[in-house]
Amino acid sequence: MSNYRYYSRVVLLLFSSISLTTVFQNCSPGGFAVSDEQFGLELSSSILAENPITCTLPNGSQLTPGNTISGFAMMSALSPMTCGSQVQRTCLATGQFDGSVPVHAACLQQCRHPDNSQAVDSGFQFVYFTRASGATQAECDAARVSSSCQQATGLFAPAVPAQRFATCLVQGQTCAYTASNGTATPSGNNAGAMVTGFSLPSATYPSLCGISASRTCQANGQWTGTTPVYTACSQKCLHPDTSQPVDANSQYIYFTRASGTSAECSAAQIASSCQQSSGLFAPAVSATRFTTCQILDVPEKVTHEMLTGVDTRFNVFKQNCTSCHNNTQAYGNLNMVSPQQSKDKAALILSRMKHVNKALGPMPPAGTITDPFKMALVEKWVSLGAPADALNQPAPTVPTAPPAPTPPANLALNCDIKTAIPKVPLKRLSKTQYTNAVMALLNNGGYLGWSERNNEAFRLVGTLTPLMGTIPNDNAALNTFSSIDQSMTPDHFFSYVVVSSAISDQISKNYNWLNGSSKVSCLNTIANNVKPTEACLRTFIKKFGQKALRKKIELAEENEYLAIYNSGTTAQDGFATLVQTFLLSPRFLNIVEVDGRVSNSDPNLLELNDFELAQRLSFHYLKDIPTDAMIDSALLGAFTASEASYLNEVQKVTRPDLHNLSGTNSAKFDSYYSTNPSGQSQLERSYHNFINEWLEVEKIPHVSDSYLVSAIDLLYGPTRNYGNSNVSAPIQNALKSETYNFVHRMTWSDRKFYDLLTDRSIIADGYTRSFYYLPEPTTTYSYGHAMQTLTTHTGILTRAVTTLRDGVGDDTHPFLRGTFIRRKILCDVLPSPNADALPDRALSAGEITGESKRIQYEAKVTAPECVGCHTQINPLGFALDDYDSLSRFRGGKFEPVYKLTADANGNVTYTLLKQVPVNASVTNLNIDQPTGESANGGVQFSEYVGNSYKANMCFARQVMRHTLGRFETSQDACMLNEMYNKMRSSDGSIKKMYFELPLTRDFKMKRIGG
Q: Looking at the predicted structure, is the pLDDT value of residue 1004 above 90?
């Protein structure tokens, strides 16, 4: 298919497609405006012309300036619009035609079908009768009229009267049974002929299909009765959870237990099937059931930290023992918090837990531990020699978050329920969402990066990878998230056209390229260019359309898409056009929310319908279109049936345990805790992306080998020996991985935002141990990873992701550190300085001889134009001055002060002048209060920030920005306050706040006009 044909087809489809019409009709004025420029409909001369001194005709030939071309302004017209007179365009010296309307060689004049007003081509014959019955066949034949669609007028001639009949019955000779689709159609011409069937097309228990009906042909040519007779009746069951009808033979799978070993979970799985005969599930579905069974196999390595709660997967000791056997009250002279005591008395612990040593009595009290799996864990631990944690030292202390502070009056958000929920503009899919949506429609689609595909779809069209690369990247401008970028350029539209053309062309040649429910087997004839049956095409249109467009395909739309297929010149051409129509639909390219119902509580709000809720959940949390299972739930109304039903659907997307996110599992270290998250689940990868764009993890700088091997810092001696000189890239990657790991771990293990800034635990490998000067552990996980304790560093503010800002040298960077914290941790808006106006070495410490770097930095920003921002920035950066430019702790030590001397060749000599105490003490941090907030060093500073109202609320803002893909407004105050409370309450956590966002009232609604 030529490029011109694709472009003209695209323009026609975008203006005639039911998807576009539906979207525009359902939006209030001013609430949804999509311009030609946004969709790239104005095809520029750079596309339509290859030679600047000639004009390109639709057939590809060239026309020299001065010559003209005549034709029609439209490719088709539909009554009462007519093709009208021809238009003329002249080729200009610029290589462009005058005017912007395309010229078409022919215009197809169409008529409206007299019965359904659908478009039909000229020459179409409409046959009807002027009478309903006749005494003879000749009378009926004489009453037959054939009216034809006229090319010139777009009207039928002769004119079709309002009084007309689809059939004419010959009395006493035949019976004609005309009814809706799916009914029996009797045949024969003898009185007494009979047809038997069902009076219902389907029934749902307790109604049954057992009701039969029959119709008899009478001598007058009429059938007895008036109701339809159906040849088949589908007996449906009520879904056990939603009470919605489901088809016969549908399976309902559940578990009779919530957790167990692999074998136990397998044995507990029940598959119940809807029976056609009874409308009931068999075997009967138990009232006590679970949607999943968490597999808890005893791992190969069981350590003390698993049993005491540092590794939060199992916690046998923590949950049952350490309340009595701890550092302060070691009943029975046993402290089970201590790895060494537990190790020394491991056999005694096991015998008491198994109630073998009856003289000493059971431990814990009888019935406390009834789970055999937990007993198996302890038994395995003893058999391994009762290993302690990775360092053979007490486990890291888990900090306890102080009570949530009262929101300061100047910062508290005012929630007004009457005006909550802002208007938001139509959002296009981000590049990530678009890429995943396309892949989810294709063979083996899913949440894997385009370049990571290794399947039939990827092998069939090797050109797709560079084509996807032409889509403009979303820009994470303003130090925020790329999902907020909603720019729409001609490059976007051009890429959508090119990608959809390549995909639709390949699908038309091999239907196996399709994925999931869209892969309708009857489409296999298209590969041989043989048209499938209409029923097959309708099945595909419904299944593919409802997944691509995230809506139920109604019959009228189904007919329009079928007409689009029929417009193709061949079976493959029609199917390619049909698929491309879906892929260029505004409903595919945008997140459209216009089909909900007006809220009873507020006429200005729409309550999202099932498909819109499924779409919002999937795009926000998985960056992908809803799965087949979510589409099925939407069709059943499960998202709006009840609060319990909605919660069940939400948890299928947001519950970490359903995505195999189980803590510090050693098997996760090569995927879950890496900088390349290809092995992660969709939920993990989305959260991985949040961490990266929030903390700018991928901007952790490259640490030069020369600086690592021979540090300038004379006071502390040379940098630790890493074993080889080429270490910068592995260290950089290890620091990134450790950051992802830490934030993931704090989230999945139900920790608070305070813990993100104060927790000292680290899962380190050899490189991070070298970087943070940690000792070698006695026990490690896979690839040398080990859970260890940082003694001088706490959470994210004192680790490399914050202290290693913008390159590494002999200087710390308090300005860069402070700016990072203001923008990312406190959500303050800081204007970027004009780079051209900055003096030379503006970001270096300066050259005040004999003074500390802090004094030199302070002296650089005393000018009035600098003070406004730097009173906000400087204290936060100086509070981290007890960490040097390699994140090494230097608190309580001295900072060397050098004099720099350069010779004629530019060689710099460092002369040590003196050593001054490191000063990381600051006042007036200006976080929750403008004055009076102080901290002495990074650890105390982190604790203060971690408990501040502003930092906690900022984290809620950052989650909302990433999840909803927009900046917050004052009308989001109610939702933000609810998110903050879910995180800061006594039983709250980051995980609860993040994953319960869909349960807020605001998530399930939108303001009309947005």
A: yes
Phi, psi (rounded to 5 degrees) for 895: -100, 125
Output b/e per residue, 868-883; b: 16+ Cβ within 10 A.
ebbebbbbbbbbbbbb
Q: And the tokens for 534?
A: 């209409």
Nearest to 246 by CA among 638, 626, 667, 551: 638
Least confident of 57-61, 355-359, 426-430: 355-359
| Average pLDDT estimate for 929-942 | 90
Copy the structure tokens of residue 361.
């009595």
> How far apart are alpha carbons 1004 and 1010 in whole angstroms?
14
3-class secondary-structure state, position 274: strand
Identify residue 364 by its one-letter amino acid code. P
Give Cα 996 distance to the centre of its chain: 16
Q: Cβ(75)–Cβ(104) under 8 Å?
A: yes
Contact 679, 314 (CB under 8 A): no
- Residue 834 pLDDT > 80: no
Residue matched to tokens 């739309």: 557
Contact residues for 13 (Cβ-Cβ < 8 A; gap 6+): 564, 577, 580, 581, 584
Residue 16 DSSP SS3: helix
CB 921 within 8 A of CB 931: no
Which runs of consecutive H residues, i.e. helices, occur in 821-948? 853-860, 864-878, 938-947
Q: What is the DSSP string of 531-564?
A: PPPHHHHHHHHHHHHHHHSSS---HHHHHHHHHH
Nearest Cα to 798, choosing from 708, 735, 889, 927?
Answer: 889
Residue-wise pLDDT tens digits, 176-197:
555 444 454 554 445 667 777 7
Per residue in 764-820, pLDDT tens? 887 788 778 788 777 666 567 788 889 889 999 999 898 887 554 556 788 889 999
Cβ atoms within 10 Å of 360's Cβ, excluding its own:
12
Which two structure tokens, joined as six digits, stand for 926? 């200006």
What is the identity of the amino acid at 918?
V
Number of helices (H), then strands (E), belonging to the chain: the values are 35, 33
**For residue 314, what is the DSSP state?**
T
CB 15 within 8 A of CB 566: no
Q: What share of the chain is helix, strand, coil (3-state, %, to 5)?
A: 40, 15, 50
Phi first, then psi: what are they for 144, rounded to 5°?
A: -75, 130
3-state secondary structure of 55: strand
Helices 949-964 and 610-622: crossing angle in degrees, nearest 10, is 120
Q: What pLDDT is attached to residue 311?
A: 65
The position carrying tokens 């005006």 is: 419
List of long-range contacts for 27-35, beta carbons under 8 Å, 24+ apart? 27/594, 28/1008, 28/1009, 30/1009, 31/423, 31/1008, 31/1009, 31/1010, 32/426, 32/594, 34/426, 34/586
Q: Are the C-beta atoms of residues 438 and 481 closer than 8 Å to each other?
A: no
Contacts of 559 (CB under 8 A, 6+ apart): 116, 118
Quick one: CA dihedral 323, 327, 331, 332, positive or negative?
positive
Q: What is the pLDDT of residue 394?
A: 42
| Cross-strand partners of 144 | 129
Q: Is residue 483 predicted with pLDDT exceeding 70? A: yes
Q: How far apart are the first and last CA of the chain?
A: 39
Whether 1010 shows a pLDDT value over 80: the answer reads no
Give the Cα separation of 925 and 941 in Å (integer). 9
**What is the C-alpha to C-alpha distance for residues 830 and 828, in angstroms, rounded to an integer?**
6
Residue 509 banded pLDDT, cuts 50, 70, 90: confident
Mean pLDDT over all residues of the chain? 77
562 torsion bin: left (phi>0), alpha (psi -120 to 50), beta (else)? alpha
